Amino acid sequence: MHALLRSSRAPEPVARFGEVRQQTEALCDPLETDDYQVQSVIDTSPPKWHLAHVTWFFETFLLKPYLDGYRPLDARYEQIFNSYYNTVGPFHPRPQRHTLSRPTVDQVYAYRAHVDTHMAELMEACAPANRTGFEHRLTLGLNHEQQHQELLVMDVKRNFFANPLYPVYSEARSGPTAGAPPVRWLDFPGGIREIGHGGGSSFSFDNEQPRHKVFLRDYRLASRPVTNGEYLEFVESGGYTRPELWLSDGWSTIQERRWLAPLYWTKLDGMWHEMTLSGMRTLEPSTPVCHLSYYEADAYARWQGARLPTEPEWEAATSSENLDGNFVESGLYHPRPAAGPDDAQWFGDVWEWTASPYSPYPGYRPLEGALGEYNGKFMANQYVLRGGCCATPLSHMRATYRNFFYPHDRWPFTGLRLASDG
Length: 422
Prior knowledge:
globular; 422 residues
């Protein structure tokens, strides 16, 4: 059994810069040169683009405004590696990122080295008068790169699934597992609770603030996420053929896209298998089910006579929990079964869908300038997920962290935990 990881205080952002940048490149070590170019669906991006875009972020929001005399390695990179910042300028269309055969992989790594060299100069020379704004942007840039580390792992998995050879990114490290512990209901009292990040010296994204009061009724949460074996019962009982279980948009989606099971589930020789970053493997019943859309999570909960938790319910239940879990540092790149009846798997393994739309907290204020586009403009038509996953860096996680995806998205490591009224 692998060792689970425990949260510790993160070092200063200047000290962390090299560590975070090296980790991104380490995640690319298993890739062959041809892998860097693949974009199997428009939801994903080529690994090469991730490497360059996070570098563009430091160049655009730190080097250009703070380092006198800075000269870009190639001024054209400003457009092709901009993701969606309209206030910065035009950008290359997302669905066409796979067309960028140039710059080459070697040239992208040279771009990273160029920016890292000048970032070292900036971090050494930044005047104390500029230190507060500089450090905030640097910390944001590091967390932005960690977000893309997670996306990189998820996108590689999606790209490898599109290849009929089902390539292996990392050899499997887990052996045979015992069955999942029986699920229990955990009772939580209602009342007035506070959620959201309180600010102060620790980092949070702007969408986690301000801290505010919410009123909750008594509620219950399941003692662990739903497993493959439990979800398989839903599949084999005809859950994908029963319109009464599905939201209208969900039913339309599964009809149009012909979904019959979670993404990466495939029947081979009459047995269910699951694509993993260790290749195609026999479906493990005790592992948390993963790669579900919001629609699938909601339909399963309804089939069970339950519901999805709300965002405030989830945070109120976990705010005092340690950030123990299966994160990217474990090297599994896959959810693992609960270790026992007391292993709630609140953090790591799978992002858990909530029933809460992604919207601003009361009193929310986006960052000023172009960085205000980071989160705020996406607060429509998406749902919040909580808890992190097996591709999330541990130092990137908090109990207040709000991830968000569209309800049809399935390529992230997304699962669910059941909830009900108390």
